[in-house]
TrEMBL record:
Function: Probably involved in ribonucleotide reductase function.
Pfam families referenced in this protein's UniProt entry, alphabetically: Flavodoxin_NdrI
The family this protein is said to belong to: Belongs to the NrdI family.
Domain of life: Bacteria
InterPro entries named among the record's database cross-references: Flavoprotein-like_sf, RNR_Ib_NrdI_bac, RNR_NrdI
Protein name: Protein NrdI
Lineage, top ranks: Bacteria, Bacillati, Actinomycetota, Actinomycetes, Actinomycetales
Xref: Gene3D superfamilies: 3.40.50.360
């Protein structure tokens, strides 16, 4: 079964993209005062890229905190990233960084809210990915 964990800033671009996919999803808290998210099943991470085109600060601090938890990190099976093509070479850099750090595939990149084609491709890709992936026991 498809499982998504995502982070979305206050603008909600990533949240709106995830909602269009129609799969179960859990959001990494935006504020430090919110309860910490612990995940006990495999998931694909969907994350925006921060930094405005700079290479530093591309991964949101909330995502770093979430992935610093060993159990959360161990259950990540792939990453999908959003970004802005105006960022140039830093477009979707957060996904590249997380993919390299966790040795998981960077499965897809989309701009801002994503297009209907992006939503369709990600929906189909996640369905196929989860049909061939065996979950890690909790």
């Amino acid at each position: 079964m498809v499982s998504i964990v995502y982070f979305s800033s206050a603008t909600g671009n990533t949240r709106r993209f995830v909602e269009k996919l129609g799969f179960p999803a859990q959001r990494i808290p935006l504020r430090a005062a919110d309860p910490f998210l612990h995940v006990d099943r495999d998931y694909v991470l969907i994350v925006p890229t921060y930094g405005g085109g700079n290479t530093r600060g591309a991964v949101p601090k909330q995502v770093i905190k979430f992935l610093n938890d060993p159990t959360n990190r161990a259950h990540c099976r792939g990453v999908i990233s959003g970004g802005n093509t105006n960022f140039g070479t830093a477009y979707c850099l957060a996904g590249d960084i997380i993919s390299a750090k966790l040795s998981v595939p960077h499965m897809y990149k989309f701009e801002l809210l994503g297009t209907p084609e992006d939503v369709s491709r990600v929906h189909e890709g996640l369905s196929e990915f989860w049909s061939t992936t065996s979950p890690t026991p909790a």
